[in-house]
Amino acid sequence: MSNNKVYWRGTEELEKDPAFVKSAEKEFAEHLPIDEFLGKKELDSTNTSRRDFLKFMGFGITAATLAACETPVVKSLPYVVKPDEVMPGIANYYASTHFDGFDFASVLVKTREGRPIHIEGNKLSKTTKGGVSARVNSSVLSLYNKRRFEGPMKEGQSVDWASVDSEITTLLNNIRSNGGNVRFLSSTMISPSSMGLIEEFKTWMESGNAEDPVMTDSAGAPVGSGSASVKHVMYDAVSSAAMIEANKRTHGIAAIPGYDFDKAKVIVSFGADFLVNWINPIGYARDYAKGRNPEGEMSKHYQFESVMSTTGSNADVRGAIKPSEMAAAVAMLGNAVVGMMGKEGVISASLVADDNNVEAKIKDAASKLVAARGKGLVISDSNDPNVQTIVNGINEMLGNIGSTIDFSETTNLRKGSDADVAAMVGEMNGGQVDLLFVMDADPSYTMPGAWGFADAMAKVKNVVSFAEKPDFTSQDAKYVCPTHHYLESWNDANPYGAEVTFSQPAINPINKTRQWQDSLLTWMGSSETYYDILKKKWDTNVTAQDDPSVIFASKWNKIVHDGVGTMAMPEEETAVEPVFNPAAVSSAASALTKPQDGWEVTFYLKAGIGIGTNADNPWLQELPDPVTKVVWDQYVTMNPVDMDPEGFDLNTHLGEQQRSGMVRITVNGASMELPVVAVPGQKRGTIGVALGYGKGYEGERLIGENAFAMLPVANGFIQYSAPVTIEKIERRYNIASTQTQHTMMGRKILNETTLTEFKGNDREHWNPLVKITNAYGEKVTVDKLDLWAEHDIDLGHRWGLSIDLNTCIGCGACVTACHSENNVPVVGKDEVNRTRSMSWMRIDRYFSSDADPEVHGDINQEKDYHAMEIPSAYPEVGFMPVMCQHCNHAPCETVCPVAATTHSDEGYNQMTYNRCIGTRYCANNCPFKVRRFNWFNYVGDSKFTDVNPSQDNLARMVLNPDVVVRSRGVMEKCSLCVQRVQAGKLEAKKAGEPVRDGSIQTACSSACPTNAITFGDINDKNSQVCSQAMNDRAYNLLEEIGVQPNVWYQTKVRNTEPNAEQTA
Amino acid sequence: MQRESAIREPLILGNKTYHDITEDVCAPVEGKANKYWYIVFSLSVMVALWGVGCILYTIGRGIGTWGLNTTVDWAWDITNFVWWVGIGHAGTLISAVLLLFRQKWRMAINRSAEAMTHLRGDHGGFVPRVSTWDVSGWHIGYSQFQTSSVRFGLTSTRHSSGTYLRSQLISRFHLCSGTSV
């Protein structure tokens, strides 16, 4: 059926009435009765008028808004009687000394309103010379550690001091009457007064009990077991006993000499990580940096080691050797030196697997040493006295003893004796020890498992631990008499030569603790306090540094103020002259151990954790390891070549989604399961495992395992390497690393050159100015092309930083200093793994090597970025600290919608936290990626309760009141320590003079042990920072993008021969 | 001039009256919902509640929950925002195109398109607040006083989303008041 109907709505449509056609265009044909509706009378009679509705709505919205507001409650108490020296808002600095048995530093403690908040170096000290390390400046946080003992304990129960005192006094009097053996076990003790006190205690104990005299025979001598014996044994968790033994054998002095790294023109180190961990690293690093100036006579540094250490990564020439090849390598150096000096006495030595020209490198080192006779330095960290004896022999032959090695001023920082400790453990096992005092040490944790200290301790009737916080030893001790933190204590120290340094309390004791020296005095019934003893000793016995202004002050006040003084040395001690004994060297040569085949493990120390004393310090756990950049974890280091599919087939690239493989390592029957991290430069066929773990916590998670227990003992000396069996296990593990990108992708980021290149050519060859093509096709320097209007930067101050890449050793002291100064939150492993680390400073670590055409192709021709990521087995390393570059043409400033980041008149790129609304435009636009966003409320969110100290009421006391704690949703970044600059300007204003160059230091520049970071006013043409920024080595990071940073980098110069391909 | 439709197959069979058709069309809306409707509706409600929960969680903890990080500062939030901007554009565009071509049958499609645009308008106001942690909307007034605010970025985002919302409201108002657009 066909359809020819027409449908219409009405006749108007059918007839095409013009009125209809017009209205049909409208969507609503009929008029909508809105006006009629609103005009209805009934609306007026409804219960809710329009006005009421608005009122209710207005009230509702206001009430809901107000309910969301909360006035923060700030508790503060005023001083009832204000101490004279405390001025709210003004910091006081007190000189003190940090020594925990491992790390020594003479320090200045910054206190605000009675709270220590920051640690800086004390420039008056000859030992540490004003430097600090990450472990030292983080120690301020351990003062506020909530895990510390709150008072004395007996068998795990809290007790009061009176009852502990009476029990221990009774015990001591019993031993005095009836005899018995009392032992003190500590790490190296450098306090002359403490040692004197122990001597006094010994005399007191051994003199018998007057009220209850010892049974005597007719001649008056004690009979039976009625005499007490007191002995103090010192041991070092990382022992240098072999060095002391070797020095005794070769030079007749059982001590560690002073080393002058600034005088040394050739430094050859066999495994000694002297910039971060070896004996006095802060002082050594400062001296080492002095000798690394390429404009002057630059030292040449050779390092032979198996784990890529911080020191090794700074070496000019690094040879990777197996730990068992150490003796052979030292002997080969000896042979080469002997040969070149035309002397006799060659030792047979060879390496088992030389895959990186170690032999040639050793010969090269020998020729340089011989050429710089008397100005060389050979050191080793081996704990084998034979190796150390050969090292001494080489130094003696080269005439280094007496010039770079100084036996007249010896170091006291390592005095431990492995033999004494082993003997004492034997006594303990035999049940001969009646009372054991343990201080400044955790022997149950740090002693080799083979010694079985914990079992031996169970056989001692009474153990008194003076630990500050629970540790492996104190948990089994009968009594715990917690001692003060060093910032609560009086003490003295004699670290080196005649230098004596002092500790003074910077805060009242936080808990009911008592310094162990005072505990001893109490138990001895003495009326003196330790303070009295110190004052009596040093008011007469020390020469303060000469200063005519202190005529009226007592010497005591002067030395406590300065923190350092010079000790009057007893005559007979200074008289000892080192006399070389060649026979010792030849007998050591015949006893050298031979290199072994098979996998070996080196137990090494990390820059942050050290021996684990402060493994519960979150700043240190979050400090990236200088070489691996891994945080919060212990792991096995392995050469990436060994991890490839033909080897262990493990994942070499770490990232949030790329978890590391795990292995089980077994040493002498003890095994651990650890993740593996690829470390180029690790000797192939060896692995490294860090000591100091198994102690710290991230939340409830125990981090790592105790590797001290695996340490083998050879001939009575603790060894830090061992043969190992490794098997891959199927589990995988998340490792958090702050740097997952290791290549510069062919750009000039870390600019480096060689010394020959540097000396022989002008800067165009090794630090060319970046030029780009302008619209006319001309090559012009980048500052000629400008999109932005210039800031007025030539008037007034213009603060800037200069960072010398030649002296930056990558240690991380600046990173922790920045955390401490600027209240940077700790975010924990999981957040770092999501690349949300909050550190304002990072130290980028780049591996470099000569491109291998087979692996990398021709990198100059086509940029194969993927190939650039393939590391060589033994690369060179460079460190580059990166913080906000404070660009004069800052890309972040132009995109901020609320002007929260702006340019200051003094050159900063500054953040106004109150304005920031968290759009993150700035971070997206920052070419250096230095901006940090508060993704969470780090001071309140439960995820960070266990890691961020700012969430703990006690640890909050470490916060710097001059720096606001940033809230959620706010962008933050390096401020160039604007609060310090402001304080420095006010000081200068008060003094009525311009700001002196160097009087203002940022936290990082002040912490740097090598003075690699210089802060100052670029507009002051006489300032150090200005001269550095203008010199030929200076360049800006990513210069080609034209953002004109106020941070300059100084080209790194390696003292190596130029590579033929590079010069071509 | 009247043009008649060509004769074609009838579109509606079964001799339905207009009333029947109206009843058929309205039946799903006016009648009692069946089992399937309840299933689909409860799924939608669950998804909506899930969304509300996510938003509350985000407000409670922070946008760190979105998996952003220090080099990827915008990921989920910009994707989400751009998605809704796209929806907004689409709604407006469909609406505008149909209007410009005087399509008489556009009403039904317009309703959906405009609904999308409305939702997008709400969202445009909401997302920047959630993603910057400024739930109070404080930045909107604040940035007016800043010299640098007339630049790229959030301001223009806000202006753009605000413009959509306003133009849509105006057009609704015009339609509601019977004025032809």
Helix content of chain B: 55-70%
The mean pLDDT of chain B is: 70
Q: How does the major sheet of chain A shape up? A: 7 strands, mixed
What structural category arises from helix and sheet content of chain A? alpha/beta
Rg of chain A, please? 34 Å
Tally of helical runs of chain B: 6
- Our estimate of the beta-strand percent of chain B is under 5%
Spans where pLDDT lies below 50 across 5 or more residues of chain A: 221-225, 1059-1064
- Total beta-strand segments of chain B: 0
Order of helices and strands of chain B: HHHHHH
Largest sheet of chain B: none
- The count of β-strands of chain A is 47
Count of helical stretches of chain A = 35
How would you describe the shape of chain A? globular
The SS-based structural class of chain B is mainly alpha
Detail the poorly predicted runs of chain B: 133-156, 174-181
Quaternary structure of the protein: heterodimer
Beta-strand residue percentage of chain A: 15-25%
Q: How are the strands ordered across the major sheet of chain A?
A: 5-4-16-15-14-6-7
Head-to-tail CA distance between termini of chain B: 26 Å
**How much helical structure, as a percent, in the residues of chain A?**
25-40%
Can you lay out the helices and strands and say which pair or pack?
The complex is a heterodimer of chains A (1064) and B (181).
Chain A: H1 11-15, H2 18-24, H3 34-38, H4 50-68, E1 92-99, E2 104-112, E3 115-121, H5 134-137, H6 139-143, E4 153-154, E5 157-158, H7 161-178, E6 180-186, H8 192-206, E7 228-234, H9 241-251, E8 256-259, E9 266-270, H10 281-290, E10 300-305, H11 310-314, E11 317-320, H12 326-340, H13 358-371, E12 376-380, H14 385-397, E13 405-411, H15 418-429, E14 435-439, H16 443-446, H17 453-458, E15 462-465, E16 479-480, E17 491-496, E18 499-503, H18 516-523, H19 530-541, E19 542-543, H20 555-562, E20 564-567, H21 571-574, H22 582-590, E21 600-604, H23 618-621, E22 630-631, E23 636-638, E24 660-667, E25 670-678, E26 686-690, E27 697-698, E28 701-702, E29 713-714, E30 717-718, E31 721-723, E32 725-733, E33 736-737, E34 752-754, H24 755-760, H25 763-766, E35 771-773, E36 779-781, E37 799-804, H26 813-822, H27 828-833, E38 842-848, H28 853-856, H29 865-868, E39 876-882, H30 891-895, E40 901-903, E41 909-911, H31 921-925, E42 932-933, E43 971-972, H32 978-991, H33 1003-1007, E44 1013-1017, H34 1024-1030, E45 1034-1035, E46 1047-1050, ...
Parallel strand pairs in A: 6-7, 6-14, 9-10, 9-12, 10-11, 14-15, 15-16, 21-26, 23-25, 34-47, 37-46
Antiparallel strand pairs in A: 1-2, 2-3, 4-5, 4-16, 8-13, 17-18, 18-20, 19-20, 21-31, 22-33, 23-26, 24-25, 24-32, 27-28, 29-30, 35-36, 37-44, 38-39, 40-41, 42-43, 45-46
Helix pairs in contact in A: 9-14, 12-13, 12-14, 14-22
Chain B: H1 18-30, H2 35-61, H3 76-100, H4 106-132, H5 138-142, H6 154-176
Helix pairs in contact in B: 3-4, 4-6
